[in-house]
Amino acid sequence: MRLRKEKAEKMYPMPVEKLRPVVRCSSIRYNIKQRLGRGFTPEECRGAGLDYNYARTIGIAVDMRRRNMNKETFDENVERLKLYTSRLTIYKDKEEAKRSGVVQHTGKIMPVKRAVPVVQTVKIDEIAQRFPSK
What we know:
Elements: H1 2-11, E1 22-24, E2 34-36, H2 42-47, H3 52-57, H4 71-87, H5 94-100, H6 124-130
Antiparallel strand pairs: 1-2
């Protein structure tokens, strides 16, 4: 716990965790589920108008081994990067950040929003009228 606090103080005002891409789980069983991946690809960084080396300095995780398998997730992750950079404020030094009253972000940055399925209810009377009993 002490080391985490020291790391957070050393990194101030940067967030403790890095921005990570949204990826799909592997295997047929779990590929419906989305989770946070290890890092963005250099192509995704270029698509958002960032150099991947610069992206690492502003708190974005970059994974050189990951490949883009389809256009939809590529576009989603590029939009995620653009949204992050639009919200990002860069200070010259720690003193300037302290003067502006910045609070360090300690949780996950832009977590995955899980879609909640919508269930429609139907009255039993309507179903009974469609299917007459024997």
